[in-house]
Write a structure and sequence with these properties.
The protein is an alpha/beta fold and 218 residues long. The chain has 9 helices and 8 strands. Helices cover 49% and strands 15% of the residues.
């Protein structure tokens, strides 16, 4: 299975990607993870990416595409992969299609997860992370004042970009830059829309309906 998971911040792409990895035993390609790993391992592309990141600039598309190409050429991702967090713009989508053509990869679906903006703001405002292991917590599910990770003992905190004003700005960027991709993939017949407002297990079922049955709007 070769798919792209698509949708606004806070829609639950990472959560659904993990469930799909368990279902299909496929590679989970997260561009954020790829960049961090490449920088950590000081690869040629990682060093190039780090020079932009250290200067406070966005990593150029060609560097990210290069990292994705390295993964797609590997045995682990050649037949089965989930691409999460990329593309985010029309030029990125075009470059990615060029890479797929170069590697003779046929994309099965772009699964677009749709969630109301107010729900996204609510979800992300509730999200907390562990500084140590990255585990996600929900504020309302913690005891008052509880800020220690049960898994590694690290500090539980809220990211600055998960605060309401930052979330609204991120959603504005999504509307301007990323939402046009819906039309792009729809025109090529690869888009499948899934209602992400339901609980995690039911959204997973809806995505499986797309992948197994070919349903394109649920």
């Amino acid at each position: 299975m070769k798919i792209i998971l698509f949708g606004p911040p806070g829609v639950g792409k990472g959560t659904q990607a993990k469930l799909l990895v368990e279902e299909f035993h496929c590679a989970h390609i997260s561009t954020g993870d790829l960049l961090r790993e490449a920088v950590k391992n000081k690869t040629a592309l990682g060093l190039k990416a780090k020079s932009f990141m250290d200067a406070g600039n966005l990593v150029p598309d060609e560097v990210v595409i290069g990292l994705i190409e390295e993964v797609l050429k590997s045995d682990a991702a050649r037949e089965n992969f989930i691409l999460d967090g990329f593309p985010r713009t029309l030029p990125q989508a075009s470059a990615l299609d060029g890479l797929f053509a170069k590697l003779n990869i046929k994309l099965d679906y772009v699964v677009s997860m749709d969630v109301d903006n107010n729900e996204i703001i609510r979800r992300l405002s509730e999200r907390l992370l562990c500084r140590g292991c990255g585990r996600i917590y929900i504020a309302s599910q913690l005891l008052a004042g509880e800020r220690t990770c049960k898994q590694c003992g690290g500090e539980i905190y809220q990211r600055d970009d998960d605060k309401p004003e930052s979330i609204k700005r991120r959603l504005d960027v999504y509307q301007q830059q990323t939402k046009p991709l819906i039309d792009y993939y729809q025109k090529s017949g690869r888009l499948a829309a899934v209602n992400g407002m339901h609980e995690i297990g039911y959204v997973h079922k809806l995505i499986l309906d797309v992948l197994y049955k070919g349903t394109t709007h649920i």
